[in-house]
Specification:
The chain is α/β, with parallel strands linked by helices. The chain has one domain: 3-Layer(aba) Sandwich (Rossmann fold). An eight-stranded mixed sheet has the order 3-2-1-4-5-8-6-7, sandwiched between helices. Helix 2 links the parallel strand 1 and strand 2. The N terminus is likely disordered.
Amino acid sequence: MNTRYDSTKLEYAVILERVEENSSVLDLGCGTGDLLSLLVQERKVKAQGIEIDEQAIYRCVERGLSVFHGDIDTGLSEYRDKSFDYVILCQSFQQVKKPDMVLREALRVGKEIIVSFPNFAHFRARFQIFFNGKTPVTPSLPYEWHDTPNLHFLSISDFVGYCDRRNVRIVGSAFASGDRRVRMFPNFFAEVGVFFLRETERERV
């Protein structure tokens, strides 16, 4: 695999490894299209994105990407069931207002869902809260409290429990800190979690 992407974006490498060539991908909250562009270049996917920020959409269009203006919190009613091989929520799941509805719609539209998010229980965040008594600022959480786009502050353990309670099947996962994979105690040591999800049989009933 060509590694033109920044080494700190190990989550991108994990996603690229997972996505099969010539598959179809819908990226929800795709931003300026960094991940979508890599998927097109490296995996030759049929790519589509949804983004609410108009300036970000202009950047995507400049890169030759097919991106529509839309708010994923309002649902994906225009898409048929299982119309994409993969639906991706890369660093956007913690930013939506209605995570339950967004994930439910993603599971309906996609055969497999890829979700990545910053781990708010990473040890640096814990130590900053404990010793400084302030909202943490870390490489994976680079925002001050007053300008963060994050609406939900979840940990890796939170997400695993969330999926279990909602009967969502986790079929794979990977964890990263900077440019290193984390294999032990990810809820403490990982800055980013990446999960691969599918509907369970009970979900489809």
